[in-house]
Design a protein that fits this description.
Elements lengths: L2 H11 L1 H8 L13 E2 L7 E2 L4 E2 L1 H11 L6 E7 L4 E6 H17 L7 E5 L4 H13 L2 E4 L6 H11 L3 E5 L2 E3 L2 E3 L1 H11 L6 E5 L13 E3 H5 L10 E2 L3 E7 L7 E6 L1 H13 L8 E4 L6 H13 L3 E6 L10 H9 L1 E6 L1 H10 L4 H5 L7 E4 L6 H11 L3 E3 L11 E2 L16 E2 L5 E4 L12 E6 L14 H9 L5 E10 L5 E6 L3 E4 L2 E4 H9 L4 E11 L3 E10 L10 H17 L8 E5 L12 H9 L14 H9 L4
Helix pairs in contact: 1-2, 3-4, 3-5, 3-10, 4-5, 6-7, 9-10, 12-14, 18-19
The structure holds coenzyme A and adenosine monophosphate (AMP).
Coenzyme A binds next to strand 9 and helix 12.
Length: about 625
């Protein structure tokens, strides 16, 4: 029996004992004596009587153990061509003083702080400073538009917002401060202060009534010690796209999360303290929270914080030169990044040119890893390419080939087997468990393991409705797939209205809301269609209001489409990569009025499909085919 399977069986035999033992990897101010309790909720509450501080575990603990001089963070910016090494002792000093500055501004345990920042070390200091105070951070990804930030401000109701004057994207300076100002005009809630990091590439004009310059805020700030927090206290809220236009605030507790991350660093990623770990993601996503910040730091690794792209900054060799220069042992990125590299460097010349001896494996997640890309990367790197499946809600992988427990045979297209804590079943629409090799909904038997979301921020009812109600006793993942005869899970994609664009999670509902707000639009639908680089891209179909008088293909129609594209960019953000939109006379619907999105997706992807018997008017399919079918 493989070690991964042995661990899985150990967990099944004694889930409480398994996780209480794993909890010993964490420094508690009061050790937990109970594992999972089911008192208030069927998904479980972990380590209820434990008390700890996340920042203490990620930072102070290493300094106290005499590892203060070891590197904690390496900031590598392809945009400013600079690097900065920060030791654990330096990190402690930065974070303790920033926590002091925040406390001086009135931030206390349980308060929310929004962090809207590019990939700079101060963003990590900010997250850890909140954790040190027991305040709840909510990081908002920089590629979102002001309106998305405003929605999050109103939901989280932060005491303070931490931001920067600008972010740097290839060929443009992103005006973070301008976006923040616009968002604050749109939002009802007003924080007491905004602390702004001035970057020389694009300084901001500060608003004297509310903005404080970062260094000024830090001046003479008192050093603050970590505040012990109950294990179930929220560490952060991370908003993610759901099936409606309103983002869901995924709550992460403290104790369970740290225990799960510590277990995964060792067993999934095979990382050792002192090694360099690189999750090439963004702090605005869950991967950034778990594997740029908390996971590697908990484990005493040096974590790379990369401001740049896999290609074009300056070329497709950027990742491999970083692996060589900093001795990266584990690289974690999205399949899209690998596809982008493959497109620019199909023969892997850049990989061969770099010395990659340190690299043990490449980890992929965030979207389905297509077998071609897995094989190509495995071939060129001559290393295991480990696909693993997880989501914002779980906070750490559900299914993986746990390298630290010995590599299982790789089946490209499958993230391998469930990890301890996750009993994954394939269910039919009625909630019956399906046999191997049968396609259905992927669900997790409750309770959820440590680290997974206990609830949604301000929305306990929404949490139950979105995840627990469809199939009592299970958490619904929103993904479809099957489990094969070897117990390998195959994740085929979302079965709801969530799409994954270049590893970024978006809701078609959010995009539809932006289109529907245009004065000329009567109704609309957005579907995700297959894309060779980004995995999926959104495509809009709009029906215009009677009397608008614009016919498809005209100059006026082109101008309207350009307007709609711009509107999505301004309301949702450039990260949506929304560039394709068609004007149609009708949308295909069932007689009960449900838009046939799956049929439109099949047409756009060039897949076989059957016209549903419930369709209102079969003739509309020809119109849709005319605009969506791929050119042959
Ligand atoms: N702040 C502001 N804008 C941002 C941003 C940020 N943090 N991140 C992305 N954007 C903008 C980009 O500038 C781009 O804007 P543009 O339309 O003006 O060019 C748009 O959002 C889309 O960005 P992106 O998804 O990065 O696409 P791209 O075409 O610029 O680059 C790839 C293509 C493949 C290089 C890129 O998608 C990539 O690196 N993907 C990997 C994603 C990843 O690591 N995800 C982590 C999940 S684990
Ligand atoms: P996010 O919450 O942004 O991490 O997105 C989670 C979603 O990304 C999942 O529900 C899946 O649809 C998709 N996803 C993540 N990892 C994988 C994977 N390894 N294979 C297939 N889909 C994945």
């Amino acid at each position: 029996m493989s070690r991964q399977l042995q661990q899985y069986e150990r967990w099944r035999a004694d889930p409480q004992g398994f996780w209480l033992e794993a909890a010993q990897a964490i420094r508690w101010s009061r050790s937990p004596t109970v594992g999972c309790e089911l008192r208030d909720t069927p998904n479980g509450r972990w380590f209820g009587d434990g008390e700890l501080n996340a920042c203490d575990n990620a930072v102070d603990r290493h300094v106290a153990a005499g590892r203060g001089a070891h590197t904690a963070l390496i900031h590598v910016s392809a945009m400013t061509q600079s690097e900065r090494h920060i030791s654990y002792a330096e990190l402690q000093d930065e974070v303790a003083r920033l926590a002091g500055a925040l406390r001086r501004l009135g931030v206390a345990a349980g308060d929310r702080v929004i962090i809207y920042m590019p990939m700079v070390p101060e963003a990590v200091f900010a997250m850890l400073a909140c954790a040190r105070l027991g305040a709840i951070h909510s990081v908002v990804f920089g590629g979102f538009a002001a309106r998305e930030l405003a929605v999050r401000i109103d939901d989280a109701r932060p005491t303070v917002i931490l931001s920067a004057s600008c972010g740097l994207e290839p060929g443009r300076v992103v005006d973070y401060h301008g976006l923040l100002c616009k968002a604050m005009e749109l939002a009802e809630h007003e924080p007491s202060h905004c602390v702004i990091l001035q970057r020389p590439q694009g300084p901001a004009t500060l608003r004297p009534e509310i903005d404080l310059e970062w260094q000024q805020a830090l001046r003479d700030a008192p050093w603050v010690e970590p505040v012990p927090m109950p294990a179930h206290a929220p560490l952060y809220v991370l908003y993610t796209s759901g099936t409606t236009g309103k983002p869901k605030g995924v709550v992460r507790d403290t104790g369970g999360y740290l225990v799960a991350l510590a277990w995964s660093m060792h067993n999934v990623y095979a990382a050792n303290s002192g090694e360099t770990f690189w999750a090439a993601s963004d702090i605005g996503w869950v991967v950034g929270h778990s594997y740029i910040v908390y996971g590697p730091l908990l484990h005493g690794c040096a974590s790379i914080l990369y401001e740049g792209k896999p290609v074009g900054t300056p070329d497709a060799g950027a990742y491999w030169r970083i692996v060589e220069r900093y001795g990266v042992t584990a690289l974690f990125t999205a399949p899209t990044a690998m596809r982008a590299i493959k497109r620019e460097d199909p023969d892997g010349a850049f990989m061969r040119a770099a010395k990659l001896d340190s690299l043990r494996a490449l980890f992929l997640a965030g979207e389905r890893a297509d077998p071609d890309t897995v094989r190509w990367a495995g071939d060129k790197l001559d290393r295991p390419v480990i696909d693993h499946w997880w989501q914002t809600e779980t906070g750490w992988p559900m299914v993986a080939n746990a390298l630290g427990l010995g590599l299982l045979p790789i089946k490209p297209g499958s993230p391998t087997r469930p990890l301890p804590g996750y009993q994954i079943e394939v269910l039919d629409a009625e909630g019956q468990v399906l046999p191997p090799n049968t396609q259905g909904e992927l669900a997790i038997k409750l309770p959820l393991p440590p680290g997974c979301l206990p609830t949604l921020w301000n929305d306990a009812e929404g949490f139950h409705a979105a995840y627990l109600r469809a199939h009592p006793g299970y958490y619904t993942t929103g993904d479809g797939g099957h489990i094969d005869e070897d117990g390998y899970v195959h994740v085929m994609g979302r079965i709801d209205d969530v799409i994954n664009v270049a590893g970024h999670r978006l809701s078609t509902g959010e995009l539809e809301q932006a289109l529907a707000g245009h004065a000329a639009v009567a109704e609309c639908a957005v579907i995700g269609v297959a894309d060779a680089l980004k995995g999926t891209i959104p495509v809009g179909l709009v029906v215009l209001k009677a009397g608008v008088g614009i016919s498809s293909g005209s100059i006026a129609a082109d101008a309207l489409v350009a307007d709609l594209v711009q509107r999505v960019r301004e309301e949702v953000g450039p990260v949506a990569s929304f560039q394709r939109c068609h004007i149609v006379t009708r949308l295909p619907k069932t007689r009960s009025g449900k838009v046939l999105r799956a049929t439109m997706r099949a047409i756009a992807d060039g897949r076989a499909f059957e016209i549903p018997a419930t369709i209102e008017d079969p003739a509309v399919i020809d119109d849709i085919r005319a605009v969506l079918a791929p050119a042959t």
